[in-house]
Amino acid sequence: xxxxxxxLSEGLSKRYGEVSALRGLDLAxxxxxxxxxxxxxxxxxxxxxxxxxxxxxxDAGSARVAGRDVVRDPAGVRERIAVTGQYxxxxxxxxxxENLRLFAGLLRAPRGRADELLERFGLTEAAGRPxxxxxxxxxxxxxxxxxxxxxxxVLFLDEPTTxxxxxxxGEIWDAVRESASQGTTVLLTTQYLEEADQLADDIVxxxxxxxxxxxxxxxxxxxxxxxxxxxVADPALLHAAAAVLDQLTGSVPTLDAERRTVxxxxxxxTLTLPRxxxxxxAAGVHIVDATLRPPTLDEVFLRLTERPDxxxxxxxRS
Length: 318
Prior knowledge:
By secondary structure, this protein is of the alpha/beta class. The protein has 2 domains: 5-215, P-loop containing nucleotide triphosphate hydrolases (Rossmann fold, 3-Layer(aba) Sandwich), CATH 3.40.50; 224-317, Alpha-Beta Plaits (2-Layer Sandwich). The protein is built from 11 helices and 15 strands. The longest helix is centred in the middle third of the chain and has 16 residues, at 166-181.
């Protein structure tokens, strides 16, 4: 079965003077999926979005978006995409309704589409107010609504929920899920790891201008194995519990005297929580609580992007 890619790039490179923002970036995003693009600050995420949306011309490499070449046919790309950047681009002096109707006229959107989106994003009651009076979450919803006036083949969301409260973030998530369910391909850059975990079918971790790691959220978590963590009754026995975890997992445990916890990562799929509890109990350590869980995406991100030349903190904290 042949996979059709909505976004396909090979060897994308972009320099700003002496700084290489992209160093041979390869991306392959299947149609109708949500791709989360993660990476530390300065990794090249925003530069990649600007190249793929024809705002920047690459120095080398190639890219096709919605079947059109970003260099040879930028107008064709723009006809098929929508972009929501890091900051809302609506006009604060116009009302919410005026903003959407202005964009609808420019895009030749179907009649009534603006009112439909105002209702869908919960903005009907505020539609007659100037956008400058909207909260940050309302402005972001209005901005996203403008991007969806004409259903795009590919929707680029560059950190769309930065600074939003959890309720507003959840509303944006619902809108992204609905767009994807209707066949729109979504490329999402975000600093919120939970956001990528919730929304993305696949994740690409960009580091140093390249695609360093890729996979589903579950696949990336599986790279780190599981994390065992126990809470001991007596903090004086943390090191005794750590010695047991060290032997069971083969990795250096971390200790937190304030929380009375000791934890370690294991890739041994046969290691069970009952065995961990039995072994620590046999060492004379009373356990208050114990867990064995997959790592969070935050832990995966930190592990995969840690710098080898960065100072290494002591794993034993007291």
